Amino acid sequence: MSSSEEQIAPSVRPQSLMFSFLGIYVLGRGTAVHSGSVIDVFARLGVSEEAVRSTLARMVKRDLLVRHRRGRKVYLGLTSHAAQVLADGRRRVWETGVVNRSFDGTWTLVGFSLPDSRRSTRHDLRSRLVWDGFGPLQSGLWIAPGMRDVTEILAPLDLGDSVTVLTARALAPTEAADLVRKAFDIEQIAGRYLAFLARWDTGRPLPSAPDDLARQLLLHTDWLQLVRQDPHLPAEHLPAGWPAIRAEQVFHALAHEYEPRAGKLADAVLDELAL
């Protein structure tokens, strides 16, 4: 990573930026984009051509992108799997909200026991549970507030009777606040939002970025990484002045500010193929 890239996109992986790009400029449009024009967009972020090509190739291999050839040009479109992943990300960004104000006291519990021979499956399961807002209450038992349908995240793992899913309510002497404290690192979650605010809640965020297209992609990437890690905990069990509320306001304001100019720049750069 070059020094200019470090200034513009510190600690941001090209794949994370790619998900933001695809979610904004490919999802729902019925188009594929020429790989060369994607490289041009990512050059604004200091991401090398080699890194972009490598990222695209990996996403094709993982059944997230599909190639369409027209003459000498290669265009990349979304697979149905990628469209589902990106649509879920879009819902989290624009619809779910960062604070759970509708908690009714119900918790979803996922218990599992997997041998060391299935260590990679255990890792995948934990990653999927984190993505779906679960936290580890104790060894092999994860919880999330509200009713959660975990069928989709469990199905690909072939867990059989190694997993148990239940719903429950806290009973004395256990309090819901105790569950939040035990299963979730509140200080760490708050710290991530405070870091977002330090970067974006300023008079002129990211002055080193060349234009609003670069800022838009970085903003969306930062925000999606935040909400992906947010378990959407009940508002009544969060500390006063919870920084996620201000962070969400900042994200929405900047996203709407960047959108017009970013869209015009993307239209000028992107070479698209109607599917």
TrEMBL record:
Annotated SUPFAM superfamilies: Winged helix' DNA-binding domain (SSF46785)
Residues annotated as domain Transcriptional repressor PaaX-like C-terminal: 184-265
GO terms (BP aspect): DNA-templated transcription
One Pfam family it belongs to: PaaX_M
InterPro entries: PaaX-like_central, PaaX-like_N, PaaX_C, PaaX_trns_reg, WH-like_DNA-bd_sf, WH_DNA-bd_sf
Ranges for domain Transcriptional repressor PaaX-like N-terminal: 13-81
All residue ranges annotated as the Transcriptional repressor PaaX-like central Cas2-like domain in the record: 101-180
PANTHER family xrefs: PHENYLACETIC ACID REGULATOR-RELATED TRANSCRIPTIONAL REPRESSOR (PTHR30319), TRANSCRIPTIONAL REPRESSOR PAAX (PTHR30319:SF1)
Name of the protein in its database record: Phenylacetic acid degradation operon negative regulatory protein
Protein's organism: Sphaerisporangium rubeum
